[in-house]
Structures are given as C-alpha cells and as structure tokens.
Amino acid sequence: MAGMVPTPDQPSPGVPARSLAYLHAVDVGRVKWIRGKRAAALKSSGIRSVTDLLLHAPRRHIDRSRRLAIGELAVGDEATVIGRVERVSVRRPRPRMSIVEATVSDGHGSIKAVWFNQQYQARRLERGIEVALSGRIDRYRGRLQINSPAVDVLESGPDNLAVGRVVPVYRTIGSIGTGVLRLAVHNALLRSRPILDPLPDGLLERHELVPREEAINSIHFPESLAEVSAARRRLVFDEFFRHEVALAMTRKRNESDSVGIAHRLHPEPDLVERFIDGLPFQLTGAQRRVIDEIGADMAAPVPMHRLLHGEVGSGKTVVAVAALLVGVQSGYQAAIMAPTEVLAEQHYEGVTRLLSEARMAPRFAGPRSLFDPAHDDPDRPRIKVALLTGSRADTNRRERPGRSGLLAGIAAGEVDIVIGTHALIQEGVRFARLGAAVVDEQHRFGVHQRVKLKEKAQGADPDLLIMTATPIPRTLSMTLYGALDVSALDEMPAGRKRVRTWSVSAVGEELERAHQSIRDEVEKGRQAFVVCPLVEDSDRVEAASAIAEFRRLRRVFPDLRLGLLHGQMRSEEKRSVMDGFRSGDLDVLVSTTVIEVGVDVPNATIMVIRDADRFGLSQLHQLRGRVGRGAHPAQCVLLADPTTKDGAARISAMESMSDGYRLAEEDLRIRGHGTVFGARQSGFSDLRIADILADEAELSAARQEAFDLVDGDPRLDAHPDIREEVRVLLGDEVEWLFKS
After folding, report:
1. What's the predicted TM-score (pTM) here?
2. Angle at 492 between CA 603 and CA 450, to 5 degrees
3. N or C: which end of the chain has fewer CB within 10 A?
4. How many CB atoms lie within 10 A of CB 266?
C-alpha cells in the first residue's frame, strides 16, 4: 500500500468495503479531533461528511523527507525552507507601506523572510512556531533572504505525521490549521478502510489509474511527490467521471423518453434555401456548417437539444432564423425566448429585417412601421412574425390585432414565429403546434422556464436550440453542456473590424482623455455608449452608478444629447430611449449592462466602461461587442484603477486579446470554473480537485468512458455502485442535469 501508514491501519479480514456514498452519510463531527466548533467550521465550508473530509485535498505538499539545511542554500535557488521563527518585526518606512521581517532558523543557519504590505503575516508568525517558507533565495547585505515567500505554519501532532516525510498542507478553515486537519484525515481514513472502488478493473488498466483507496491515502500521506501526482490524477478522473455519467444518463433519457418531430428538410417550397439564397450577403462556412448540423437534428424523430455559441457578431441570428424556418416549412410554429424586453425587441426587428431582405416578409422599415405595402408581393412566402413581451404585442403585418387578438392568432396557428420574453410561458399563451424553440442567453433563465416553454408544445417535444453569445472553451462545453450537442460559430463574417481597446485611470487627465475621445467621435457624426456597473449610488459598493454618471456627463457635455437606460425604468421609457439612440436622436447613451447583449447600433463607435475591473472578462467582451458593428473604426475605453491582481489581469487581457474564445479561457483561469456561470447552476460544486483547463486529458478520457458505459448499460443496472455514487455525491445537481 502506497503511503506511510502504521501497521494497525490495515483493515481486519472480512470487513466489508465502504463506498463513498456510504461514508457520505457519516457526519464529519464523528471524526476524532473534529468536535463542536471545529465541526461547525468544517460544515460551513462544505465539509459535512467523512467523504467530504477524505476528498478535501491538500493545497500543496512539502517534501520534508529530503530536508535541505539553510546553510546549504544558494542564491537563486527555488526552495522550501523549514525552521523555527526566532524574531518577527514590523516597520513602516513611509506612509501606506509596511514591511514584515522574520528570522527563521533550523539549527544549521538562519534566513530572513521579508513581506511588503502584508502586515497580516506578522499576526501568523509567533516566536517559536515551525514554518515552511517557499520562494526564491536572495542575498541582502551579506545574508540570505527570501522575499514575499509563501508561508505555511507546521504544527506537529502526537502521531508525528509531519516528520521526515512529504507533508500535506491544507488551507486553514476557521481556527483549524494544517496539523489538526492532518490528524482528522488520518483518523477518518483509519476508520473508513477498506474503501470500495466501483470502477471496473479494465477501465483502471486502460488509463493506468491507481486504486481509489491508494489514491485517497497518497493524496494525504504520500511517500513521494510522484505518489501525489498519481493520486491526484485518479481523483480528478473520478470527479469528471461522476459528472459525465450523469450527463450521459441525461442524454440517454432524452433520447429514449421523448417523442420528437421529424421535420421535412427540403419540401416545396424550401423556405430555408430560399431564405439563404435571398440574403444580400454570403454566409460564412461556419454558419453553413451549423445550419446543416441543426437541419440533421431536426430531421430526426428525437428532439434536438443543441447549444449554439459563438463570438460576438458571428451571425447567430441568421442561424436561428434558418432553424425556425425548418419548423415553419413543416407546418409548425416556432418561438424565440429572450431574457429582456430590449433583447426580445432587438430579435424581433432583426428577424423581420432578415426575412424582408430575403424577400420572405413585408420589408422592415423601422420599429414603428413594420409594413411597406409597395413591397408586399403575394407571390413570395409571407412569414408572420409576432412580438410578445410584458408590455408589447405586435406583428409584422398591416393588421394590429392587440394583445388578445395576437394570443388568439398564436393559439389558432396563424402566427408562424413568436418572439418574446418570459411572457411566452405565461398561463394565457397557447400554441397550436410549437415545433421549434430558440432560447437566447439561456444562462439567464431558470431550468423551469425552459421546461415550461417546451411544455407549450402540448404534444411531441419541440426541437430546442440554446444560444449564447459567450464563447465557451471546449472543456467547459463538455462539462457545463455535456448533455447537449454543441455547435460553435468560430468564423467571423467578412469585414468585421477589431475594436481598439485601451485603459485609462478614472481620474484626472486620463479621464479627460476619455471624454475627448467621446467628443471626437460625436463630432464625426458617430455615437457613444457609457456603461456603469450600478443603477444608483450605493454606500456599500464603491462603483460608478448610471444615474450619477448621467448627471456628471451632462455637465461635461452640455451641448450633446444624452440618454439614460437601466433595468429599473418602465418598459415604455426604455423603448423610447433605445429608439432615440438607434435613430440618431441621442449622441451618448449612459447605461447599465442592460445593453450587454442584443443591442445593435452600427453608428456607435466608442464605448467607455466605468470601473471596468469590476466586470468579468466575458461580460467585458460582450459589452465591447456593442461597438464596431458598422463600417467605421471603433474603440473601447476601460476606465479602471484596479485594486486587485485579478482586476488588473482582466484589464490587461482585454487590451491584448480580441478573440472571445481566448478571453473565455483566460476568464476561467482567473475566476475558476465554478464562478463563470455560478457553481450551482453549472453543476460544478463536485469538482473539488479537478481543473477543467489543466486536466483536459483526464476530462476527455472520463467522458469517453462514461458515455461508453451508459451506452451499454443505460440505467447502470450492472453498475449499481457507480449509480449510487453519482446520485449521492452529486445530489441536487443530478436533478439540475436531468432537467437542463
């Protein structure tokens, strides 16, 4: 057995193996060393059971088996120094600067450790405690020094688990340090053995994975760093495998339990081909490929569940219209559901414009005049499109039926395509034959809202296309959307220009420079966005608000026409402001992130983002995509004075990168997989050790094995231990995966 474990640790013969599902039911408070306040602290951090404790991996390991004396260190070494703290001092050479200095000795020599503006280190480093310092060895004024090292406090327990070996270092939880956690994990492991390994022997052999008990033992008590690597690889595989099994079962259930619609791909007339041929521009290769993928899905009797993601401006709307027309030409209705009225209206106008350009509907002439009788040719297809939101009901035809008349038309099948917000899933909305549905920016909807839209079909399940303008790295799509087929629009239409992005401070001359850039663009006849993170000023958050910024900019630009837009305005107010900006009646639009997606104003050539370091990279890229949509060069100005390392990294990435996929991966690195869309929504809270970017090879292998397993055993009747582990360890997330 790998790892140094005393002889009494060996389980008695005949003791049944315990599964992680079984140990998940054992309260962590039953473990020796974990009682009372310690148990409460662990539970508040998510460690509630023995399984949670055993899978709580150390954040790093220190090799104390090959101890290098301080006297043997050389300048330039990257080393871990272990010794006792002899002295600690704090000095302040100037205002707003502190220097913590500690002298550490190991009996063979001493070294000075220095931290700048990290005064909290002085509170950790008490005289006499043993510490491990990791960093680069330097020399200053003739003596060894290590600057800003990582520091771990090493408390040795009665079991000598921290002496002469590779030592695990855990993150401190409340007042529970590494020493107590080592002892608690050791006790939990003793009482849990033998641990059941549910994976088939053949799978372990194919991927050269160590047995589960060996992996858990070695991640906590390894004999070498090589054992740590092998143990981590096995535990990472397990995490991905559980997740992918749940996704594979979801997909299998969708295929077997649902009754779909086999749409006709090339009827007469072929609306999709007529639509594509009639457009005044050429589709990209990616658009044609994705339209073919969607068509093949919709022709099958199994309901389509496909995710479409792509770069800002990659042409998702054209693809969505093609999907809707597949349903319409088969005699069904189609729907688009958007999260906001602004985006729903934008889709309504965009779809109507595309259909009119392809001569398949009355020509689009603006948001208030959707019908031009001179171009209403009775010989061409007439696709009736309706808009339904909480405040508006409209169609692209002469008649204006009113809300009740429009609902009656939808129920009678007289409307071909319905575009709306969550109003589409309200009680009074009935479809005659809903055959295709598009959900845009789906992460803004709850699972039940998407399910309710599908239930509007009242028969066979409609084909579902989920769209997002957030480019998704391949590894993330395998985990976040693994139960869906995925299409990527990874090619930009010809002529799309890069938006020049630069950052300045939000004060002084640099702020005035941003103001001058706005004025320069307006004097050329262009328009500007100014985006703020808040609607109103807040005592709790130091960030710019749209209302305060609007008032300030009216003083800066008294001669310009400014508008204000935020989510708390009434629908008619928002519509009036957006119409004014689109028509050119406003020069500058001050807004919150309500304009993040869907807003298309080709004449807008500059965007200024206040407190840009407070936004995530994907959101910044979405905002930037609102400019540069016309024929003129565009720029994005990031007003930011970052106070965090992550904030500065996001600003730097935005200035240097324009590719949405690269930015999405950088966002993952900075923020972590669980916060990109929300850990619970993503189904990622079971990923305790795995990193979906760094561990892509393990993810791919686990996905293949999981889908192969479920393909041959859809209900896992032959693998009950795997089924139970997935059910228990993923918990509510299994339901999330099934419903999504």
Report:
1. 0.71
2. 90
3. N
4. 11
